[in-house]
Design goal:
Strand order of the largest sheet: 2-1-3-4-5
Low-confidence stretches: none
CATH architecture of the largest domain: 3-Layer(aba) Sandwich
Mean pLDDT: 85
CATH superfamily of the largest domain: Response regulator
Number of domains: 2
Number of strands: 5
Largest sheet: 5 strands, parallel
Helix content: 55-70%
Strand content: 5-15%
CATH class of the largest domain: Alpha Beta
């Protein structure tokens, strides 16, 4: 299930959106007040619905879609004039102000679209990714979030699924271990 991220420069709007969504049974992953918070939050998960009420100079929606394209849906909630200036492929929008029921309907639709476009990993795939992260942590001194971010970033920039990159890491590690064993056998 996609994680919901709420972002707005306005405390009041963030609070309103959070209240509307939680009262309708949605769980909020994080609430952000700046573009850097949005980017940091997006780097921590790979399936996100961002409700962006207003704009952030350091995180325009077009840039976020470009940087996190395989893991992100954005619902821009703004005045019609702002929406017209920020219309691009993959960016959904609601005109502000909007009713709570309109917001909930849009969120439900986008959640379903994200689920269809981002199928959940099977248990073997999840274990594969976890094993690859473990190897990165052990051999490269990364923390778990650093290993996850590295895998996610590399996979996205090379057009791979994270599970495919995990397989590459495991194969490379196995080949390196085999080469070391062969060298040890020759030296004996």
């Amino acid at each position: 299930m996609p994680r919901i991220l709420i972002a707005s420069p306005s405390d009041r709007v963030r609070s309103q959106l959070s209240r509307i969504l939680t009262s309708s049974g949605f769980s909020i992953f994080r609430i952000c007040a700046s573009g850097s918070e949005i980017r940091r939050s997006l780097s921590e998960c790979d399936n996100t619905l961002l409700l962006m009420a207003g704009l952030f100079p350091d995180a325009p929606p077009e840039d976020l879609l470009s940087d996190f394209k395989h893991q992100l849906q954005i619902l821009l909630i703004a005045r019609p004039m702002i929406i017209a200036e920020h219309s691009c492929h993959g960016l959904f929008h609601l005109s502000y102000p909007c009713s709570g029921s309109t917001l909930i309907g849009a969120v439900e639709m986008l959640m379903q679209m994200q689920v269809m476009n981002h199928p959940q990993r099977t248990e073997p795939e999840r274990q594969l990714v976890e094993h690859a992260k473990s190897l990165l942590m052990t051999h490269h001194g990364m923390s778990e979030p650093e290993a996850h971010h590295h895998m996610q970033t590399y996979a996205m920039s090379h057009g791979l699924k994270m599970t495919d990159y995990a397989r590459q890491i495991l194969e490379h590690t196995a080949n390196a271990a085999q080469s070391l064993q062969e060298t040890d056998d020759i030296l004996r």
